[in-house]
């Protein structure tokens, strides 16, 4: 039972594919109340509002003026996250839950951090796979030294995203609003790689667009050197056909090997340190989004209630964005790039006024 009785009113902006992983936990967890939802496209938002019995708005300004919220979930296209997060914080001073990737560029992270500090609110970035049982078990053993020194950490993501996936919405497959396989799909796993194996020192990468007609890459490979001296390999593709196969991470360490597999690192396929954990820490999931959003929202509640700070802080959320940019920069320049060069990708998050105009709150007035 929660000791405090505060009920946090939550508003959702963006009623697309990921929204069920927000209204689901908000409805299920005592302490949250879904106040209202919003989408520029009424055909997406209105049926959902009817189903959930909450008011629907096309425009978030009207929504937040008429129905003040304590927390706003920003589930809009990735390249719009900084604009929407900062706009909402500055106008309404709410806490923010923001989907991955929280931003595309490091400069936007700075602007978001400054806005939150000024308004004294929190930004909670989503990396729900950190909650996977398999991830938690391996991380605990690594942090308590039971696996010893890491020799090699690898990511292998083999998913299928054919042309109709990109054609569904104008933002998909663009440098300004989405990024490629490494950003949209790979971000979870490059986050987990550092979560488990520690921070990266340098990367050498290559990318290509193989099977779809989009600006961004559908296939990305890199070699990695960690600060610890461990080496790593990243292989991320959405060009696997005809289906999704795996999103796995391997940690090869002095005292044992961990292979986290399944569709989204939801299984512990091999764990030489404790083979019983292979069953205990493997969980079936209905889709690649998994169940982590529920634990994530419980931790938001605990943080706002004054309990333990959220384990996924804004700052640790930035590590994956820094690595993402270094990886692209390496592929763009064809050289090894060091994280401490703090370089941004030349294209990820680039300005595109026409695309941005589609997703501004004012777009409803058009
Ligand atoms: N954590 C995960 O596993 C996960 C899974 C899927 C998507 N995501 C992320 O969630 C975000 C959304 O992805 P999606 O697949 O749900 O996209 P989507 O295109 O299906 O939905 C986005 C919705 O936002 C709406 N929107 C855009 N601008 C708006 C505005 N100004 N006001 C109101 N509504 C607005 C659009 O109309 C659209 O319906 C992306 O950043 C994506 O990377 C995360």
Helix and strand topology:
Elements: E1 8-13, H1 20-28, E2 32-38, H2 42-52, E3 56-57, H3 60-66, E4 71-74, H4 81-92, E5 95-98, H5 106-119, E6 123-125, H6 133-143, E7 150-158, H7 163-167, H8 181-184, H9 187-197, E8 200-208, E9 219-226, E10 231-237, E11 246-253, E12 256-261, E13 267-271, H10 276-280, H11 292-304, H12 314-333, E14 337-338, H13 353-359
Parallel strand pairs: 1-2, 1-4, 2-3, 4-5, 5-6, 7-10
Antiparallel strand pairs: 7-11, 8-9, 8-14, 9-10, 11-12, 12-13
The protein binds nicotinamide-adenine-dinucleotide.
Nicotinamide-adenine-dinucleotide (NAD) is lined by residues 13-18, 38-41, 44, 60, 75-78, 80, 99-100, 126, 128, 169, 184, 289, 359-361.
What does this structure look like?
- The protein is of the alpha/beta class and 366 residues long.
- The chain folds into two domains: 8-128 and 354-365, Rossmann fold (3-Layer(aba) Sandwich); 129-290 and 314-351, Dihydrodipicolinate Reductase, domain 2 (2-Layer Sandwich).
- It is globular.
- It has helices at 20-28, 42-52, 60-66, 81-92, 106-119, 133-143, 163-167, 181-184, 187-197, 276-280, 292-304, 314-333, 353-359, and strands at 8-13, 32-38, 56-57, 71-74, 95-98, 123-125, 150-158, 200-208, 219-226, 231-237, 246-253, 256-261, 267-271, 337-338.
- The mean pLDDT is 96.
- Helix 4 packs parallel to helix 5 (106-119).
- The chain has 13 helices and 14 strands.
- The longest helix is centred in the last third of the chain and has 20 residues, at 314-333.
- The strands form two sheets. It has an eight-stranded mixed sheet. Strands 3-2-1-4-5-6 form a six-stranded parallel sheet, with helices on both faces.
- A hairpin with a 2-residue loop joins strand 11 and strand 12.
- The structure holds nicotinamide-adenine-dinucleotide (NAD).
- Nicotinamide-adenine-dinucleotide (NAD) is lined by residues 13-18, 38-41, 44, 60, 75-78, 80, 99-100, 126, 128, 169, 184, 289, 359-361.
